[in-house]
Amino acid sequence: MSTGTVKYKWLAVVLSAALILALSGCGGAKNETPVALPEETEQGETMAERNDRRVTIGFQAGEAGIAVPAGWEINDFEASPLPFAGRSYVLEILPPQGEKGAAYITIAKTWGGGLLPKKEFDSFFDYQMYSLLEIAVEKPPVINEANLAGGYAVYSTITDASLVGQTPDPDDYLYVTTYMASYNDGCFIHASLFSDDLNSESYSVMFGAVSSIEVNFHEDSDAGTAPRQTAEGNIVFTKHFGTYEVPAGWIEWDKYSEYGKYFYIRSDVDTSGKPKSNVSVEIGKNRYSLGEADLFKDAIRNVLLMQMQGAGGSLSGYGSDTEQGYILFVWEIETGDVTDRQYYIVGDYQFVMVHETDFHDEITEIEEVSRFIADSFVWAEDQ
Questions:
Q1: Which of 1, 52, 108, 304 could, after both became Cys, cross-link 176 (CB 3.0–4.6 A)?
Q2: What is the strand order of the sheet 350-358 is part of?
């Protein structure tokens, strides 16, 4: 099994330039999965001592603590929504140079903030395992339950049949372990662990890292900022990253809004049935300065084209300025009966995206609404 197979599955959309983690409290319970750890390393240091070295990874809405020995590399990715959990956050964990192994850990929070229903949990786990069965020696795979305080967890390891008796290439692994956990407070964790030796120290470190994750999230600092009404009846929303107006007759959709990403819907629309056209506003970080806006534009285009592979549809875009004088990139994606328009307001190593999802329903003014919001936006530092 190549890490590229699973990495693409999780990171093709994870790399979306407009998405950032915004959870509001999960994790902290320790997994008590009976994984044997070597008593001592070659350096004479016990694994327990090495795993006590916690690394804190900060992100906009909080931080994640994880036990990883010195010398291990941790990379983080801002992630796109899961079907049941909103946006997510991915950690890539790699051993020191000269050792082989890789772990990809996704952290997210369920929409309702509680334990993922067991039926839905099992279904998602089966979906993840299905893509591995074609190459697996184990048919069916053995699924193990892990002891977990405040939730439930399962894991399964498959052997790549094509690599049995072979020496895997640097990017190929004989074994891949899929791990999933759901906590009472809404935390959801998915991990893919790659190794050529399930008894190796590196595998033990990776499994221990998964069970050691503790996530602390900031309170939604925007919750206490009351919207105000303009003379025209529009509503002004002040968030931690800036201020923008929403036209009269539109409201913030609390059901799906979360820290750093806020949804808006027309107030007279019945949302109990099929999805309705809506607009969201979210903050994101990137690696580009304001002077590198064209590079950011190209990066967005490349990611969108990658996401559209196999889905069909068309992509078009243009650049302009907002009414406040900010650089604006607009991308339109047509796929079947849905039109997505993404308005990127460019900042210095950051951006705001106004995302319009048009289902071509009774909300015919959706394009005007999204452009109005984008034109009204003012960065917090400019106020």
A1: 1
A2: 250-252, 261-266, 278-285, 350-358, 338-346, 327-335, 314-321
Using the CB atoms, write b or e for 150-179: b if 16+ within 10 Å.
ebbbbbbbbbbeebeeeebeeebbbbbbbb
- The C-alpha atoms of residue 20 and residue 358 are separated, in whole angstroms, by 22
**What are the tokens at 88?**
């997510």
The C-alpha angle with vertex 79 and arms to 200 and 13, in degrees rounded to 5, equals 95
Task: Report which secondary-structure segment, H or E, holds 191.
Answer: strand 187-195
Residue 358: both structure tokens together:
């048009």
User: What is the residue extent of each domain of the chain?
Assistant: 3-217, 228-382
Extract the tokens encoding 35.
């994984």
Residues 6+ apart with CB under 8 A from 112: 186
Pick from 188, 196, 173: nearest CA to 125:
188
Cα dihedral 303, 278, 81, 292, rounded to 10, equals 30
Segment holding 11, helix H or strand E: helix 3-14
| Homologous superfamily of the 228-382 domain (CATH) | Mog1/PsbP, alpha/beta/alpha sandwich (3.40.1000.10)
| 274 class by beta-carbon count within 10 Å (0-12 exposed, 13-18 middle, 19+ buried) | exposed
Residue 30 DSSP class: P
**Spatial distance between the Cα atoms of 149 and 302, rounded to a whole number of angstroms:** 42
pLDDT in tens, 338-355: 999 999 999 998 999 999
Read off the pLDDT of residues 164-208 as tens digits, 9 standing for 90 and up. Answer: 999 999 889 999 999 999 988 778 899 999 999 999 999 999 999
Alpha-carbon dihedral sign for residues 191, 287, 64, 204: positive
